[in-house]
Predict the 3D structure of the following.
Amino acid sequence: MRSVMAFVWEKIMFVDHNFEDIGAVVADKRTDKWLLVYSPVQMGTIVTMYLVMVWAGPRLMRHREPVDLRKFLILYNMAMVGLSVYMFHEFLTTSWLSNYSLLCQPVDFSDRPLPMRMAQVCWWFYLSKIIELSDTLFFILRKKNNQLTFLHVFHHTTMVLNWRFVVKYTAGGQSFFMGLLNTFVHSVMYAYYGLAAIGPHMQKYLWWKSYLTLLQLFQLVLVFIHTSHNLLIRCDFPTISNLVMLGHTSIFIVLFINFYYRSYLDKRKQK
């Protein structure tokens, strides 16, 4: 028992000798000064404004007519498809050219072109999570308050917080796997939203909505397995980062299973 506890403690406190020791992780000197990364005040202000919008928005719209955003949403969603495809390409190409391992991939903190390219796409992914906060604003303006679920708000809030942490401390390495999967899933998801925004006559072509939720669940399960494996082996990657990712993913899996059950399986039973 003591040997097991010693192993766990060593894993949690393990710090690579190249790090300037600050607990288990230190700021990446390459990304620390980048926009929306350096100070937690910037990110904290954005998240606080977002939560205020979630609370105040529906109240301000209560006696107003829904805003017609159809044409704008078509352009917005297709632009998000383009951004997601670009990031997926960057995650995939950079990890491939860098000979990334799926079993254990430390962060390369050097200024060489490929490690910098990976750090840059991690930052773009973080920025995309901030842009995606607009999804909530569009629901509020269209008075789609039924879409403002705990899952929706929790997802958008925590993804911003989580990926600010990634870019500041571990821009690359094991972190690439979630970015790779998520950009692929979001390419499909925003394509669905873009088609749905065209009009009701598109609904007959959107029969695959439930499969989109399953795709999101499958993504989360893969990230859970990937992160769990990394915790069980000796790998030069901060354990605290893996623990945060594992906890984050576990909560999402539970929430998405609950969402899938209520949205599809429970409705089928009622029918």
